[in-house]
Design brief:
The chain is an alpha+beta fold. Strands 1-4 form a two-stranded parallel ribbon. The chain has a two-stranded antiparallel sheet with strand order 2-3.
Length: about 70
């Protein structure tokens, strides 16, 4: 199965929508393992760890379908 190429902004939006509403930002960067990963910047420090775990689970699934374009 061929993967679709998406920009970082597109992937950030997909991850954020899948995570739901909240006071956080998502940044997509190239990563050595799956090709790209997401970093969550939570505006409420107590939520940072939980939100990052959620983003990591979503990215694991999305990396099977999308590549980060240049």
């Amino acid at each position: 199965m061929d993967k679709q190429s998406k920009t970082a902004a597109d992937l950030e939006q997909i991850v954020k929508v899948r995570m739901g509403t909240g006071d956080f930002d998502v940044i997509v960067q190239r990563g050595p393992d799956a090709g790209w990963h997401a970093i969550v910047q939570a505006h409420q420090p107590g939520e940072a760890h939980h939100l990052q775990l959620m983003a990591d689970a979503i990215v694991t699934e999305l990396c099977q379908h999308y590549d980060l374009s240049d």
